[in-house]
Amino acid sequence: MTHEQLVILGSGPAGYTAAIYAGRSGLTPVIYEGLQPGGQLTTTTEVENFPGFDEGIDANELMDRMRKQAERFGADIREAMAVRSDLSKRPFHLWFDDGSEVCCDSLIIATGASAKYLGLSDEEKYRGQGVSACATCDGFFYRGKRVAVVGGGDTACEEAAYLAGLAEKVYMIVRKPFLRASQIMQDRVLQNPKIEVLFEHNTLGLFGDNGVEGAHLVHRKGQPDERIYDLPIDGFFLAIGHKPNSDVVSEWLKTDEQGYILTEGKSPRTSIPGVYAAGDVADPHYRQAVIAAASGAQAAMEAEKFLSQQ
Predict the structure, then answer these.
(1) Is the pLDDT of residue 20 over 80?
(2) Pairing of strands 113-115, 242-244
(3) Mind listing the pLDDT tens digit for each residue in 157-179?
(4) What is the mean pLDDT of residues 240-247?
């Protein structure tokens, strides 16, 4: 078992930015990449809203550049995922899926959040080719096109309303005969002429030779009047929620009912001194790379200050 000053769990924009800032402040951060090196951003294609790239940049290239920048400032990047933790006392103790163990004086949790999917094989087949879990990230690519949003809650309504400002037509695929969203959000989508809500619909699959070209839908599944048909669309957006990847530390930290790590005010400080949360694991609202990166910088600055006072 090794003893480190600072460990960072996660290798998305928050984790890599935390490592860059920590390295530049004289620390030697150790990053554990986790299950998805580069984070959830790598499930999309081109990123056009990250500052500094006026013509956009491939998501994987962006994360590769962040990784190299973190290494340039001394980050020790390891291919493992934390499976257990003991944050009851310092140094904090972590166990990983490769059998290794480490103790650390400070910890930054940047493990992100995973979008919930329907579980269709076609979602994986067309990921980055018409399937997305972020309208703000990918909506621009569907200007003047026809898209579908899956879900009936506030998030789905927000995504549909956002996409309606870009797309020619937006369908909301809702499995229930009603929307679960707040009344104001329901009114917003139901009164928008570009949005059509398909109540009591389920998605059976997707099709297309060059990316998504349509969805196989069923209306009133299992009912006598069940109807199966194909809906021509260019994009398929999931808006059925996210699950924060906080299980490995949730025993020790305060979280909300969904599992997002709670922090103090606008800071990345958690309920345990020396432990910080950055990025989507503590952000149920924005889920943007630039915001995650900023919170990673904050976490590193807090960790450096904490360690200098010990």
Answers:
(1) yes
(2) antiparallel
(3) 989 999 999 999 999 999 999 99
(4) 92
Helix (H) or strand (E) holding 123: helix 121-125
Q: Residue 36 above 90 pLDDT?
A: no
Residue 126 has pLDDT above 80, yes or no: yes
Please give the torsion angle defined by the CA atoms of residues 125, 128, 133 and 136, in that order, rounded to the nearest 10 degrees: -160
DSSP 8-state assignment for residue 126 = T
Q: Is 110 helix (H, G, I), strand (E, B) or coil?
A: coil
Residues 6+ apart with CB under 8 A from 143: 166, 167
Q: What structural domains and CATH numbers belong to the chain? A: 2-115+242-308 (3.50.50.60), 121-238 (3.50.50.60)
Under the banding of pLDDT at 50, 70 and 90, the label for residue 310 is confident
CA distance 310 to 300: 16
What residues act catalytically?
Answer: 134, 137-138
Which residues contact residue 99 at a Cβ distance below 8 angstroms, ignoring those fewer than 6 apart? Answer: none
Residue written as token pair 């499976």: 83
Q: At what angle do helices 13-24 and 59-72 cross, to 10 degrees?
A: 20
